[in-house]
Amino acid sequence: MNHVILGAGPAGVIAAETIRKHAPNDRIVIVGDEPERPYSRMAIPYLLIGNVGEEGTHLRHAPDHFDRLCIELKQGRATRVDTGKRELVLEGGATLPFDRLLIATGSRPVRPPIPGIDSAGVHPCWTLKDARAIMQLATKGARVLQMGAGFIGCIIMEALAARGVQLTVVEMGDRMVPRMMGPTAGGMIREWCEKQGVRVFTGTRVEAIEAHAPLKVRLSNGQFLEVDLVISATGVKPAIGFLENSDIKCLQGVLTDEHLQTSVAGVYAAGDCAEAFDIATGKPVVSAIQPNAAEQARVAALNMVGQPTTLKGVTQINVLDTLGLISTSFGAWQGVPGGQQVELTDRGADGGRGKHLSLQFGGDVMVGCNSIGWTEHVGVMRGLVEGQVKLGAWKDRLLADPTLLMEAYLASAQAQAERALVPGRR
Predict the structure, then answer these.
(1) Do 273 and 238 touch, CB atoms closer than 8 A?
(2) Which of 32, 103, 146, 358 could join 231 via S-S bond, C-beta 3.0 to 4.6 A?
C-alpha cells in the first residue's frame, strides 16, 4: 500500500507514525511545502521569546527519526489531486501516485487587502522564515504594530512583549479575541493588556501602509503611526486552494465523515484543513486546535490501513494565556437557540486580573462557556461541555450560582456514569 500524506505538521507526522505502527511494510511519503524538517508552528512564539532555538520547534528531535521509520520526507507544493489517476500533482509537474491520501495541509494566513501590505518590514508570523525576519526587526524598544487580536494574535503579542518592543495592537472587531470571547470577557482582556503597557485599538482597521523607513501606518480612526515593523495576524483559513474544481467536496474546509474520509474513497483529511463533526453544535466545523488535529490524524491513519475507526467528534477548546491572564472558551460559548445562560464578573481592583464566568445551557446540558481567571475549573468546564453531561437539577443550581461547577460535575458526571453501567437505564 502506498500512502501519501500532504502536510508536514503535527497531523501529518502523527498520521505517518500511526500508519507505520500498524502497516510496517507500506510505503509512506510526507510532502511538506517548506525546506525545514517537520516543526510545530505553535512553538514559534517560544522561539521569538528566546526560550527555544529553531531545533526546539522540531516535532521530532532525533535526526534519524523518519529514516528509522522508513518515512520519506519530500519538499513540494500541491497544485491538484487527480482522483481518477490517484496522483498528487506538485508544482513543476512532478506527480506522486497514491493508494491512500491524507490531506493535512493546515491553514494559511489571511492576507488583508491593504495598500502597502507587501512592503519590506511587513510580515505574517506563521513560518520559521517569518520568525527569522521578525527577530531581526523586533529588537528591544522597536516600534511594532500588530494587526489582529484573535487567539493566534494574542499568542504572538505575548512573544513580542517579552522582546521589549513598543507594541500597538489593532483589531477590527469590537473586542479582543472576538471569535473566542464575548463582549465582557474580550473587554477585560483589552483592559489587562493596556495595564501591561500594550496600546490596543479595537473597532479599528489599518487602511494603508506607506513603505518608508520608518513605515507609516494610517488607521481608520484617523491616526497615523510610525513603526519599524508591522505584523499581520488577521486570521487564517484552510490551505485547500489546490482542491478547487476537484472531486473532493469542500465547504469551509475539506468535508469529512466520521472516519475522516472525504467524498472520494481512499482520500482522507485531518487537522486545520478538515471539517469534522462538532459535538456541541452537531454540525461540521473546522477546529484549528492541535489536540483535535492529533486525534483526527490518528483516526484517519487507522482507517487508511484498514482498521475501521470512528471519530467521536471534536469540541471547540481554547485556553489562552495573555500576558499572564488565563482565559478559556469551550464549545458553543455564544449559546444555542432557546438556551439559558448565566454570567458572573469581578473586574478586580488595583490592577488585579479580574474574574469572569459565562455558562451556556441547552436543556440541562452545559453546551459552552467562557472564563477569565477561573484556572481551577478549566478541567471541569471542559469535562461538562465535552462529556455532554446531563445536569438535571444542577442546571438550576448553576444558574443561581455558577461557581458550583466542581460540585455539579462530581454529582452529575458520576450519576451519568452509573446510569451507563446499568442496562436499560438512561
Answers:
(1) yes
(2) 146
Q: For residue 422, is pLDDT > 60? A: no
**Across-strand partners of 261?**
268
Chain-centroid distance of CA 191 in Å reads 24
Residue 143 predicted with pLDDT over 90: yes
The C-alpha atoms of residue 41 and residue 202 are separated, in whole angstroms, by 26
Query: Cβ contacts of residue 367 below 8 Å, gap of 6+?
Result: 280, 331, 332, 335, 336, 339, 360, 361, 385
DSSP for 223-286, written as a single string: -EEEESEEEE-S-EEE--GGGTTSSS-BSSSEE--TTSB-SSTTEEE-GGGEEEEBTTTSSEEE
Classify residue 115: in a domain, yes or no. Answer: no
Q: Residue 329 belongs to what domain range?
A: 324-421
Q: Which three cell numbers stand for residue 268?
A: 482522507
DSSP class per residue in 290-330: HHHHHHHHHHHHHHHTT-------B--EEEEEETTEEEEEE
Encode pLDDT of 343-383 as tens digits.
999 987 655 678 999 999 999 999 999 999 988 889 999 99
**314 part of a folded domain:** no
Among residues 234, 258, 284, which one ends one of the domains?
A: 234
Q: Which of 277, 308, 170 is nearest to 231 (CA)?
A: 170
Question: Residue holding cell 523586533?
Answer: 138
> Could you tell me the CATH number of the domain that includes residue 373?
3.30.390.30
Q: Domain check: are 223 and 241 in the same one? A: no
Residues 187 and 174 in one domain: yes
Peptide bond into 214 cis (omega under 30): yes
Which residues are bridge partners to 328 per DSSP?
A: 319, 371
Grid coordinates belonging to 294:
492529533
CB atoms within 10 A of CB 77: 15
| Per-residue pLDDT band at 284 (split at 50, 70, 90) | confident
Say yes or no: 356 and 399 in one domain.
yes
Are 227 and 242 part of one and the same domain?
Answer: no
Whether 316 is in a domain gets the answer no
Give domain status of residue 168, yes or no.
yes
Number of domains present in the structure of the chain: 3
- Looking at residue 74, its pLDDT comes to 98
Q: Tell me, what's the pLDDT at 419?
A: 60
pLDDT band at 413 (very low <50, low <70, confident <90, very high): confident
Residues 256 and 346 in one domain: no
Q: Tell me if residue 183 falls in helix, strand or coil.
A: helix
Q: Which amino acid is at 67?
A: D
Domain stops at, among 209, 234, 259? 234
